[in-house]
Each structure stands twice: as C-alpha cells, then as structure tokens.
Amino acid sequence: MAEARPLLKVLIAAPRGFCAGVDRAIQIVELALERFGAPVFVRHEIVHNRFVVERLKRMGAVFVEELDEVPDDRPVVFSAHGVPKSVPAAAQDRGLTYVDATCPLVSKVHRQAERLIAEGRHILFIGHAGHPEVIGTFGQVPAGSMTLLETVEDVGSVSLGDTSNLAYLTQTTLSVDDTAAVVGALKARFPDIRSPRTEDICYATSNRQAAVKAIAGECGRMLVIGAPNSSNSLRLAEVAERMGVPARLIERASDIDWDWLGHPSTLGLTAGASAPELLVREVVDALRERFDLIEEQADHTPERMVFKLPRELVA
Question: Out of 65, 133, 277, 295, which one is annotated catalytic?
C-alpha cells in the first residue's frame, strides 16, 4: 500500500505577482516586436525575472546592458526600472528608435527629483546602491545634488554643508518598515526636511509586504517566488523572516530545498511583482506531488491599477 503523504496547507498571499508597471513593461516589448519585428533590443532586463526574460528572448528580444550594443537600425526599449537622462539623449544623438518602459511610479519620483533640485534643495535619497532604479533616478539631476542613504546609521553619518534646504525621496521597492525607520531618523535629525507629496514606495510593494504580514502568523515556512536581483522580492522574504517565519527566495519550483522545507502544517506562498502567476502554479503543482495539499487563497482587496501604454505602440 502506498505510503500516505503528509498533509500540507498552502496559504497563498494576495495580492502577489505582477504589478501594473511590470505588466505594462512586458506588453511594451511584445508590442514593439509586433510593430518593428525581431530583433528588438532591450537595455537591461525589462523586469527582474529570468522566466519572463527568457520568454521574451524566444520571441526575438535581445537584452543588452549598454546602448552601444544596439545596432543603428534596430529599436531599443528602456527597462521598467528607469534610465539616466543621458541614455535617451544618446539614443536621440544616434537617431535610434526607442520606447521608454519606465514604470510611471518611478517616473513620478524622477519628476519630483527635478522639481526639488529646481527649488534649490539637496535630496537625501533612500535606496539600495547599484540598483538600476537608483542609478536611473540619480541620472535625472546634476551630479552631487543627491546623497544616497541605505540605513538609519547612514542618516547619523551623513555630512552636509547646508542643511536648511533638504528633501528626501525613496526607491519604489523598499521595505516599508525599514524605510519608515530611516525617514523617522531623517526627520529627527533634520526637522525641516521636505517630504514627498505622496508615498514613493509603490502600491504594489506595500500591498505585497502587507499580504505577507497578514498570513505569516499562520505559517511554519514561507516561499517567495522571485529573482535574487529583484528588490521587492527580497523584501518579501525579509518581512517573513522578521515575523519569525523561515523564508526562502526561489525562482522556480526546481529551486525548492525539500530538506529545508520539511513538513510544516502550513506553508505561506507569495510572488514578487516581476513573477508571473504561472510560476506560482508550478510551485503548487510540485508541492502536490509530495504532499496531500489543501490550497487556500488569502482574502484581499483586488488591485485595479492599470497604466497606459506609450502612444507610439498603440496608435
């Protein structure tokens, strides 16, 4: 007689997976391939997910890191993370056809940075060094007009000549809790610092972290589907860990460490904003092969955000 499989309840966080900005960016590459034919070049990964990138490669997208890798006669798409102003300027100088897939919520931060610098303010920018979104935002304003802060400790050590005209902005994919701590330290040290008009951390990042918090108390383990270079996915695993739930970031079902997983009674499952639902189903199917599975979707308020596509692709 076949051995009975252990019972496992899988509690699937909601919302999870694709956000409006990711959805839009992927559509832009697909529409560019329809409009211009293959190959269409994409500067940097359109979104941080290997599965998505490989699928677009099969359709005819070619991913490059720098503009000089793009031939003169082919179009180029700029990734959802945003690019420094110098990149579209260089594309124009070469006469390249380009489409900007920057998430509108990242573009909003770019415009805020420009306005604050025009007002004569120095910006303290909360973000992760080297992340493409941070590089893109710094590239909107003159060198030296923004200072990067990553931690509360950075707030205490930052040295500025004039502190009378400061403002802060943040990367859109940060930990809500960590950022609140850094902002609190900023306001304590610089009481007159100008805050953003609205929260810079995007709705999808905040919602996905809140969804993990909502289910973590019931879970013995948490799996987060996302890429290791995806900021918002890494933050989801951190949120679970801080609530005392051991968490692992995986890209595909094949990455599950079964020894680590063990036999929890309840497993939490979520996906970062760049991970398609197909990968969630793949993980559930892999779990079903080893466990007697009870699948439960967490309650949530649906996200209804939709961003318009560039006119040049839908005209």
Answer: 133
